[in-house]
Fold these 4 entries.
Entry 1:
Amino acid sequence: MPKTKEKSVKVTKPRPAYTLEVSVNDTEYKGKAKDLRSALSNFVKSPDFPFSVKTRVFIKFGVGKDLRQKTYSPSIARKIFNRISFRDTALDILSRKLDQ
């Protein structure tokens, strides 16, 4: 019998998704995306996005169990949320700063 070549198929594991959790004004947002910029973009487009910030903002982000946390005062959070809601470049800048 002639031998046939079997094709080897590489199985790639799906990359773990970025997790983003935001607590602001007694509202909790939880989301996942392929990277931090996409997760932030989904947060801006969600109905949970706050148009006014009155309390501290707690952001947890990361991959898997490797979560980091960032806290913003209300005045800083207002500026950040205002900028990321209108400018895509602000999303890029914030995602780079958080990812450092």
Entry 2:
Amino acid sequence: MAQYQCESCNEPRDAPICPKCGADTKLRGDLPNASLEQLVERVSRNAAAAEAAPAQPPRGDDTRSRPSAIRPELVSVDSPRVAGADPVAPAAPAGIVGLDEFHALLDRGTKAVILCGASYSGKSEIASGYIRANSAYRGRAQNLTLRASLRSDYVLGATNPGEVWFQVIDNKRAFLDPSGEFYKWLSREERQRLGLTDDVTEANFQFVQRAVSALAGIIVVVDLTSTVDRRQQQPWRRQEEDLKFVLSALRWLRWDKEARPEAIGVSTNIAQRVSTLPRIDKRVLVLFSKADQLARLTNQTPLELARKRLPTLHGALMTHASRFRYDFCNTMVKTAQGDQAVDPCGVLLPMDWLLDDPLRWLPLQLPTSWIGGGR
């Protein structure tokens, strides 16, 4: 029986590429019944197609060149706009590349470790850095899946807009790395800048909604190099405000199962309901990424830095998370030739606290530097 179905002809095929029209094929039947190898193959083919697409200019919020992407249309001509905004404001994509395959893993009992952070904050590099550090220093080999297998020297680049990337950690858990654009749709400041005057909807949480129900942990990534103004007391205020809303939304998604009153809007519903719900019951790891540039910013410990320079984020964690900790890390360095992979720093021990049962006795906010990691 043919394992694939042509997405163009809609006829059964035996090959990943339709021999009749040359179009892509998809796995037949329900995705949860497909093997892990078939799931990985399907998304790998999508990533390969994106890699072969004509190069596009980099996005306006980053001057570095990045791999191009085949992406769903992000423009909505019906979106309300405010005076002075862009002529056409982007809206959240309707289809999410890779999400069905990740949901298939959840259906097989896999738990999700969700990475949260803005575009180019280093989420993908942290996930792959942990896998290769675990292999190099502990001999726990794990094949990098999907997009990672298409990159050389482990330089992943950002997750393409409109897709999620996932990396299997072990037979129980997997990293979920959504594109930073998904978090951008949730940012109040970013939505105002783009002219999206309407409130967020539950569709904006589609990329992470099921993962929150099958939660194993949360990784919050703060980019130390992305500051509003380093001379200010809170140079990372924009990231703090965005992550504060993300944490409250994750808490709301995990515990609030009641009907959502449409009249008051999702943001208002979260604000009114979240304080009545249990706090996030899984561990939350906050990683300050790109810490190789730390000397120019601070000589404080991770906990001291959070308390004194990121009070909004620290307050959000105290409010929404039961167990959390901070640490510094870096997996890449910037050179004249571009970003280059280096031995991951500050990744293994924090991840052990998040993932490994033998270290669950560690105190709530113990800085990793006390046991030989971080700075």
Entry 3:
Amino acid sequence: MRYLSISLYLRLLVLAAPTILFAENVEEGEELRVVIIGSGEKNGDEKTLHEEALTEMFQRIKDEDPDAVFYTGSLIFGLEASETPESFDIFRKRLQTFSELAKKYLGNHIPVYPVIGTHQFANPGAVGIFREHFGIKNTTPLEAYQLAYTVLLDGVQFIVLATDIDERQYRRYQRYVRTMPLLDWLEKELRTDPESIRYRIVIGHEPAFSSAYPQGIRIGLEGNPQRRDRFWNILRENGVLAYFSSHESLFDRSNRQGVWQIITGGASVPRNVKKDDFFFQHYVLLTVPKKWNEPPLLQVFDLNGKKWDEFTLTPVNRPVYQLRISKVVS
């Protein structure tokens, strides 16, 4: 069993670099194993947490004995536009339920790092509640409604950011924003400690290129092409190996200009829904070998233990427009 010193509630260990909020070392000589899960479009009643789906997911993930779990959102649904005291209270209770489920089925030794998604309210009050609940200190120079933090695990830099929250929602800016504090921070963060970082990985909620994008359907960051392109260029120009997101109830992988994009929306609904299990319940296992120069291995499993995909996240030196495996929900 691997040992991590931080609890589920993300007790902070602030290092000399102030923007690294969480840092853990894997036991010497072992590979790094990280599970990444997230949910897709809304399924079920509003203002709900998919407790049954999360219970089954956490039970299966525990068998993998990962060093950490990243949750790409959304935790709950139906609170996108509400700022009432009642909605804030529901939000707090759902976050507490999520943490209790994680603690019960994963235990205290597997930390969970979440990102706030599009189905929670995008306003300072909600972000503040989310940050306080998970113990995320606001040391980044961002607006109150923005959320981003960095996790360093055995030389792998994971940057977690709420990709769907931008300035124009609150400041009524022009439609296409030229600069954003969130992206300015991301670019600066990716340029820190270049010699000590093995791989750089970004975790968000919305895909930069949704699965339906080739058909002209925009449900991810492509809804704002200028912002999406700047985001992707920052990843490409600063050596990011992969970007993980959810927001869609499917698994999808592609590579654009040397950066992998993985969409994993497999924690959406209970298994009694008469759909292909893989649509809704799957998780990604990312394994980083102990040898410094060996590329990470990515595997995708459903809750029955069936492996649906496996490939190495090898850096690509030339542009590759699309390498895609998709299952689209009808």
Entry 4:
Amino acid sequence: MNPIVRTIFRSNVGAFLIFAVILCGANWLLAKGSIPAKPILFVAVLFAVYYNFVFKIAVYTLSGKRKKWIIAFCSLILLVLTTDPILGFLIYSFFPILGVYLDQNMLMENYMYDRIEFRRRWVSALTFIIFLVGLRLVFRLYKSKMREANESKQQTKRLEQEITNLNRLLKARNLNPHFMVNVSAIALHRERMRPNEENMKMLTMLIALMNYQLRMDNDQQTTHWQDEWEQVENLLEMACYKDQNFVYEWRDSNCLADLDTVIPHGLLLMPLENALKYGKNTAKWPLRMVFRKSGDRIHIRYTNYFDPLKRDQIQSTHQGFPLMEARLGGGAWPITMLRQEEGDCFWVDIEIICSTSTTYDDEERKVYDPHDRRSAGIDRSYRDNPKTASKCGRKN
């Protein structure tokens, strides 16, 4: 049997049985005289057919899809235009041929067809059907919400346990998880108060980032540029989620997101973590990131502004930059990293040689003034919802 036909058949049979029980119960409890079973069964069939028809119209209307909405509208027009003539034909012409009289007065010799009374009855019956459809939709929505809430709670518990374990491992590996702990606490709190897709997305993204961090150790471990770039984007998105005052500028002059190269694990993340932990990162003092390519060299600059007093109060292992510098030197990477500080400005310059060349051309290296807030430009522009995160990473 065709799946659509099978579904229609099953739904109508189920509705028929329910309406048959309801009508038989009403006949036994409320009717003054006993109504034969045959008319009750025929009425139950009509109720079942129209109930499923109205239910499908309601479901298609609430689907939010234009095609289904058009089908629902056409079906509603069809229902309004055909109910009166179809029911009139069935009740007063077809059913009597089968020996079924839904109106006992039809057996009288002087019976007169009352169209107004007939319409009043089928409108009342259709109103009752619409009421039942409404109850079913409310119950369906409530059941769906309860199922989603239970699934969300279970998933949140699993994620909470996984984040706890990952935080423990991060601390054991001397990786500072301050920012990630803050994000996880906020995401879990919001998920408990009001579950939504954004909270779950942040928790999933956070776990991915923490797992990525755990793969970074003191050896010469490498990663693909695209993978590290993705984690940079995730970290920035989490910073936006954490605090509404976070503002950053990102210029990618040469569309380097899909660069096919291998870099030390954490090369792009570590300076960003540092800036998130110590930087002001506000509209007046934004975090700035510049990525550009010149010949066979890639130039990267992170610039952030900080409060020296607050920075000195933040606990840190002070091992982020030394470990990365040792990794670059020990692996003989064609990469140089320079960190400088002047007043309340801190910046990190990274240069990567993509070819076999082992020399540097200082003439090609463009120097940016970190105190000129217009020097980096805003090719990528501010995020729609600029936010701040200032307690993650390693100390300058």
